[in-house]
Amino acid sequence: MSKSIVLCLLVLCISASLISADSASSRRCPKRNQRWNNCGTACPLKCSQLKPVPCTKQCVIGCECIPGTVLRKDNECVSPKDCKKI
């Protein structure tokens, strides 16, 4: 009886984690030039800081700029050449 309960709980936990991971990876970001990342950087490239800086290894869940774009101060992802255009 005890083994059956443990097995059922294990199956439930695995199922829940798979459903959670699937729904998180299929999220859409509302702004142009962004994508969802389950483990993005805590130090994204910005118009004010175009070169990578030393950063922590923590994962940040959420929308990030696609490669080739940087975060402008109005929270739009733009080409570095468009940083001054607001």
Protein described:
- Keywords: Signal.
- The chain has one domain (2-82): Laminin (Ribbon), CATH 2.10.25.
- The radius of gyration is 19 Å and the shape is elongated.
- A hairpin with a 5-residue loop joins β3 (70-71) and β4.
- The chain has 86 residues and is α+β, with helices and mostly antiparallel strands.
- The chain contains one helix and four strands.
Task: Please tag this protein with its features.
86 residues; 20% strand; two-stranded antiparallel sheet; Laminin; alpha+beta; elongated; 4 strands
CATH topology annotation: Laminin
Question: For the record, what CATH class applies?
Answer: Mainly Beta
What CATH architecture would you give? Ribbon
Structural category is alpha+beta
As a percent range, the share of strand residues is 15-25%
Which residues sit in consecutive blocks of at least 5 with pLDDT less than 50?
Answer: none
Series of H and E elements: HEEEE
What's the alpha carbon Rg, rounded to whole Å?
19 Å
- Number of domain modules: 1
Mean pLDDT, all residues: 82
Largest sheet: 2 strands, antiparallel
